[in-house]
Amino acid sequence: MSQKLLSRLRFNFGFLLEANFGESRVIELDYPSIRVADDLDLAPLRGSIKASRTSEGIYVEGSLQTAIDAQCVRCLTTFSLPITLQIDDLFYYPPVTAPKGEFVVGENGFIDLAPLVRELSLLEIPMQPICKPDCQGLCQECGANLNEGDCGCEDDDIDPRFSILGELLDQ
Ligand SMILES: [Zn+2]
Ligand SMILES: [Zn+2]
User: Fold this and answer.
1) 142-168 burial string, b = 16+ CB within 10 Å, else e?
2) Stated pTM of the model
3) Of 73, 75, 146, 159, whose CB has the highest number of CB atoms within 10 Å?
């Protein structure tokens, strides 16, 4: 497989693990662009997160503004879709055992937010992304992107909204 990249979303929370329960620290993130995973780049990634020491580990909360590349289902153009990631997760730390599938504080007190940010980002992509509400899509005949102008094809299958109008005009 590909080489494991060192996450830029890895933070050392060793000092918080040493602190009393309830201690917290706010971290500001401001990346013009960032590779979160081999299959995910975000640009930008901004916001602040608060990490708090709890009896079970480190609780991380906050909201991050970002944008993700999505493909419009109508015109097939790739566009940048703004999304907000709500972070609200506990990273377990020994002696508390993490339930299966939950995040854990890594060795030496490091927390890597990349897997969480990736998961939240992918969840924010709608099933049917649309580049803009009035996207005109592709011409059925020649495949031209109709957002870029009329391709000049004969329009035999008339938009149903206009055919109703046509019927009204015939009457
Ligand atoms: Zn579109
Ligand atoms: Zn056409």
Assistant:
1) eebbbbeeeeeeeeeeeeeeeeeeeee
2) 0.78
3) 75
> Closest-lying ligand to the alpha carbon of 144?
2
The ligand that comes nearest to the alpha carbon of residue 136 is: 1
H helix runs in 7-143, sequence order: 14-18, 114-124
Supply 110's token pair. Answer: 């490091």
Q: What backbone torsions phi and psi does residue 141 show, to the nearest 5 degrees?
A: -85, -55
Spatial contact of 128 and 26, defined as CB atoms under 8 Å apart:
no
Q: Using CA atoms, how far apart are residues 101 and 139, in angstroms rounded to an integer?
A: 45
Which of 2-11, 44-53, 57-66, 127-136 is least confident? 2-11
Backbone conformation region of residue 16, classed left if phi is above 0, alpha if psi is from -120 to 50, else beta: alpha
4: tokens are: 């494991």
pLDDT of residue 133: 95
Q: How far is the CA of 105 from the centre of ligand 1 (A)?
A: 41
